[in-house]
Amino acid sequence: VKGGQWREGESRRQLNLALQSRLPQGTEVFFEKVVDPQTKRESRVPLLLETPVLMPGEMVKNAQVRIGGTFNEPYVSLDLTGHGGRVFANITEKSVGRRLAIVLDENVRSAPVIREKILGGSAQISGSFTHEEATDLAIVLRVGALPAPVDVIQNLTVGASLGQDSIRDGIYSGLAGALMVVLFMIVYYRTSGLIANISLAFNILLLFVALAMLGSTLTLPGIAGIILSVGMGVDANILIYERMRDEFALGKSVRAGVDAGFNRAFWSIVDGQVTTLITALVLFLFGTGPIKGFAITLTFGILFNLFAVLFFSRLMFDSLLSLKILKKISFLQMIGKTSFDFMSVRKIAFACSSALVVLGLIAFVQILRGHANMGVDFTGGTLLQYRTAAPFSLEEVRGHLRDQGFTGIDLQQVTSENQLIVKVKQSEEKIGNLSDRITTSLAGKEFGAGFTLESKSEIGASVSADLRSKAIISVVLSMLGVIAYLALRFDFRFSVAATVATLHDVLAVLGICWLAGKEINLLIITALLTLAGYSLNDTVVIFDRIRENMHKEEAGSFYQIINDSINQVLGRSFITGLSVLFCLTSLFFFGGATLHDFSFALLVGMAVAFFSSVFVASPLLVLQGDHTK
Fold it and tell me: CATH assignment of 155-327+345-370+464-623?
């Protein structure tokens, strides 16, 4: 303790590692919990035990509390099996005068003194027990008789300092993203932007009330879900306002333009939000831990988006119009009317898309072969995150761990935050043991103040295999759900085009993340599924305009309809992308290391999704034939 190799509150295993050169061979330090009868304060008393287990719990037949003795005190009556009675007699004969420790879950529950050789397969454990203490000991003995070994399959630990840092980073990123969106909406859409911001605040309020009522724990992925739902809420308002702009351009009054804007944007908003909702529900059903938190916040965010935008915002507009407060609506305009021939460059676009898809397929094959930077979520093993007060040399740390006999581990340095990330594959050593040894080794004097463990993630092989299968199921089910919905809302050919474009986006981003050396973990899978929802939302808006233009009497060829439709929604797509970019940029720069790769994948995905909705999904409709016939 004086040497700093072990601190009070650290694990028993770490203490034994620190004392291994001083302890007699075949012994370990265990702790017994002792309660002071006067003050009721608990303390841990160290006991040095011989490590071979002399008598396992399955030799205990039963244990009951009895009252007896000179002072009618409670004691524990112990009944043993036939074999257990013979083993116990042999132990007590050789150990008269010594203490016999009763250990459960690596804690000494009692250590009575053996006073004589005990025969007959029964014994009494007596002492200054209260009735409650005697009952607890009897339960321990009965539980110990159950042949049910406990293996650690998943252990997630976050230190207090890291938890505070994560909360701070999440709040900062959320505030930064929200502030940028709020300012942009007011500057670009003026009074209507202020209404959108009030609607957005109402949406967030409803979301926090729902999470509080459910008692949900807000994690960093959960905060990411909130920020993403904010971006989608803004997108819904932008859809309405851009529709209003079109109506005002036709010479309609303020009241008529507002009515037409909400009515014409209704199904575009619903379709876009529902396709993302399908992905969120799949994540909730098959996700684990923080991923469920992301799915819950995103699901509620989408539902409250629909209510806040389609009802609350409409109510504010109607109220202001009825009170004659809102007499004029005006917007800024970044992108005017365009007439670009998007279909003329579709062959070049298909060539670029093919290259991205090939990259994604190569990445997918390499991931299946294990030739990628796979997270412990999918490989099993241990991920340790340390922090130190001063900068350190990664090569020095690697050499130190190598000298200590640690091989087959991956080290990563986060220079800006003086952090060290250690990843150990499952095959190297059983989880729960190696992490303590590494922590003890890094806490020494070799690195000044030493490294402090901030978080630990231990995933067993069975859990990692389950996570892999659930990730695949999530992707497949979300795609099938989206195909079914779009087939109902449009027709099968539209759903095929949207699905192909979405798979293109997922593969492209997967390939780019693999090429950039990003760790493939559950957060990346979550980002890919979220991207699928966002991409579909963008594609559905264009498809909705194509379908609307197809029913116009003056509609030209299908080729021309697609070009006109893309040009008509180009401004909306750009402004929406800009608003979501604000949210994701705040996540990328202020969300901390945990969400860095997540936000990177979505930032790349935004650009890819915009490209595919214009140059992949729409041209695929042309390849399938003229839909106007």
Answer: 1.20.1640.10
